[in-house]
Amino acid sequence: MSSSRVHHFKLVLLGDTAVGKSCLVVRFVRDEFFEFQEPTIGAAFLTQTVQLDESTVKFEIWDTAGQERYRSLAPMYYRGAAAAIIVYDITNPDSFTGAKSWVKELQRRGDPNVVIALAGNKADLESRRKVEFEEAQSYAEENGILHLETSAKNANNVKALFVELAKKLPKNAPQPEREAFPLAAPQNDNRNCC
Hints:
27% of the residues lie in helices and 24% in strands. The protein is α/β, with parallel strands linked by helices.
């Protein structure tokens, strides 16, 4: 069985500020949730593995800052990324519009084979929903990308999101050596992301 084979993939999280990118990553990596999360400065780097039937996928995760002033740094993080999770908040239609602009940017400037997932976060706030599941699902289908609604707070679909991405990544082609850190990336102290 080839499950001992580990495949490394660079993964970037993109999206507007306060949509829950860091919360999703912390839930996935550490299975923790913090109600009040400090905004990410620049980007944070974490790693986590996903065990599939036939192999192990190790994600090298770049959690990027959502504030507009950091947007110009984004290409440094998504360059060479095999996968991207673009996060929006189901209670905030502007964040969905922002997510669409990230999809367009990645399709235009990212790796041509990047696997993209659209994550509608904060699904635990159903009563405050402003972005309908069907609208986002239709958009995802039109653009050939994955779509799941998640809740970092109650962990709903968080692991499933990363597992579905891992399944879509090519495991048979030889992998290029990926740089662990983008050139000239601002380095966070050891806080990782929170």
